[in-house]
């Protein structure tokens, strides 16, 4: 048996390494930018020096802005962006469609309904710490909707991809109609809260929130990364994946649960942030290839960088006011998406 | 040592695909399954691969009922080439072949796996395409890349499963005659050398008679004849199954038969 010739795949390996290096650099840059810009511009090097070695000369105001306001938000933006993009990569692999979105299985619309209920019932809710009541309902709504979609799509123990898509559309429509009804019944303040939540923003990413967010999204992301090779096999087709020893039904159940966890937690705290889960993995698949062992970490870096830059921009464009970052990602994402569709090669067509 | 189907019935909501079918694939032998469209050839292959549940009967790998074998154990002893695999994602040919190593401990990510994938690509005559994106290849090239993948899957014996089973559904359907005859020859040699049972679903009766040790003729979900090609492929039996008359003569090469369908009598000159 002749071994693989030396140099095989070297060019594509080099390319992947440089893409990953660029992504890491972008995350670092975006993180610094997110710390530096905002209503109060900070002298970043001095502020960071202050953080590392606190000395009495430090401005306590700067310290407060940096430590209490911006650092959690920057970390949260990173985790949310990474979580949404990794969930998107997994969904696109699971549906074997490069244009699938984590919202397909109803998690986003279910979460939106949960949030809307929390806003409509704000006075009737039991005394939970204020910043967690609404996310808790949103998260529950996301998981419940995903569970309903998955149950509806199961016929005799088998889940069909078309069934998942149709059930997802139906459940999303139902959630949308209910949100509309709640909005119609809401008073002005509730209506504003609701529409702000639906637009998606990172304003809620405070320190306790980020402490919840990081481990949960990190866990979901790590579990999805472990499925990388099984998801690769699924690219060949469901029967082929089974021939290669993959228990497709179990894989599908797990991936959907993990995606629901990652997206549910993110959406619960930030509202709907569109297109990150769709565009980032799709774009990176063209650069690092479809193998999930590389695609998942690349998507995590790409999603983190995108949301850091988008949030930094959202906080400066209308300063001192703040644009909901979901508007920005959708404004950027939709044209990119259309451009991708227009120049999609036949082999990548949905 | 064999893969056995015993009185297997598959009934898909009233459509009976297999009726009481019994057939065995022996190690180190080539079994060709022939028959008209809808006879149940692919269904039998799916039953043997573990993909299709059956209503009655039994399927055994070396005596072990197939439903007792978990997917990974199955995947280490048998590989399946479906009729068509539509790959939409831009994987390279070498990466596709490496996916064949997924059921093994290295999961297709070790040096050894790469060497095996490369050897399988060479056997399928697609090593020169290793760096190409699989969806950009021609139909015949894609089919050979997929063949390399299934060969890589059962390239080596494992400790638990020293004997292997290779199930191929029309492996030469998209190949030109040159590739088809060379690759069939290599597959036959591979089966003999590695003690692998090779099962082929084939449409070309002549080609089947050339490469197979045993031939099974399926019709309407039943196995109507099983044995040496020359015994199975008789003109009367073929006419009963295919609804056309055939001339069956020894092939000029001396290997196998030439099986030629006669045009209908009312064909205009």
From TrEMBL, chain B:
SUPFAM superfamilies: P-loop containing nucleoside triphosphate hydrolases. Residues 3-245 form the ABC transporter domain. One of its GO terms (molecular function) is ATP binding. Keywords: ATP-binding, Nucleotide-binding, Translocase, Transport. InterPro entries: AAA+_ATPase, ABC_transporter-like_ATP-bd, ABC_transporter-like_CS, P-loop_NTPase. Gene3D superfamilies: P-loop containing nucleotide triphosphate hydrolases. Coiled coil: none annotated. It holds the Pfam family ABC_tran. Part of the ABC transporter complex HmuTUV involved in hemin import. Responsible for energy coupling to the transport system. This is ATP-binding cassette domain-containing protein. It comes from Nannocystis pusilla.
